[in-house]
């Protein structure tokens, strides 16, 4: 499996790259989310910032992370290439999940259903939240699917007809 193909398998499938031409404001949503989310890696801030920049590029352009950032992550944080790719996908999820929420707001959607993806794709015990409905304003005590590092859960918007 190629580097690129593997990475896209790790990425959430819901985001079509060309949404940025029709909804350019979503670029800032992704940048803000990826720039500010906590990343619990035991390494220099410079490497974390480099990874954020890569994740922003990946989400905005639909590309895979550079070999350079994967090599740096393997050197300083993770032993295996696969773990480094997973880590980059987790950082990208900050952006893609924030885009989901922004799009729901535009559509006046006020609630979502938490869809737990389970371990190992989500590092948290979010199975207890699976199928529960939360408001888009508050989420689950301020938390939302994909907002914590290591959560790859997703949300399904509640659409009222
Ligand atoms: Zn989760």
Question: Please, could you describe this protein's structure?
Answer:
This protein is mainly alpha-helical and 161 residues long. The protein has one domain (3-157). The chain has helices at residues 3-10, 19-22, 25-36, 45-61, 67-76, 81-106, and strands spanning 111-115, 133-135, 154-157. It has a three-stranded antiparallel β-sheet, covered by helices on one side. Zinc ion (ZN) binds at residues 122, 124, 126, 151, 153. Zinc ion is lined by residues 122, 124, 126, 151, 153.
Cofactors, ions and other ligands in the entry: zinc ion
What is the total tally of β strands? Answer: 3
The residue-averaged pLDDT reads 90
Rg computed from alpha carbons, rounded to a whole number of angstroms? 16 Å
Outline the low-pLDDT stretches: none
Strand order of the largest sheet: 2-1-3
Tell me the strand percentage band.
5-15%
Tell me the number of helical segments per DSSP (H or I, 4 or more residues long): 6
| Classification by helices and strands | mainly alpha
Instruction: Tell me the count of domains.
Output: 1
Order of helices and strands: HHHHHHEEE
Q: Any idea what the shape is?
A: globular
Helix content: 40-55%
Largest sheet: 3 strands, antiparallel
Q: What is the terminal-to-terminal distance?
A: 43 Å
């Amino acid at each position: 499996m190629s580097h690129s193909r593997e990475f896209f398998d790790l990425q959430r499938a819901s985001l079509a790259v060309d949404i940025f031409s029709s909804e350019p404001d979503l670029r800032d949503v992704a940048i803000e989310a990826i720039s500010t989310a906590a990343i619990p890696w035991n390494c220099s801030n410079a490497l974390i910032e480099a990874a954020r920049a890569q994740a922003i590029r990946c989400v905005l352009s639909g590309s895979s992370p550079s070999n350079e950032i994967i090599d740096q992550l393997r050197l300083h944080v993770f032993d295996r290439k696969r773990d480094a790719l997973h880590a980059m996908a987790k950082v990208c999820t900050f952006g893609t999940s924030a885009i989901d929420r922004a799009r729901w707001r535009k559509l006046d959607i006020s609630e979502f259903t938490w869809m737990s993806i389970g371990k190992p794709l989500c590092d948290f015990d979010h199975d207890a939240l699976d199928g529960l409905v939360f408001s888009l304003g508050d989420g689950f005590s301020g938390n939302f699917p994909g907002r914590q590092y290591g959560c790859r859960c997703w949300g399904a918007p509640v659409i009222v007809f």
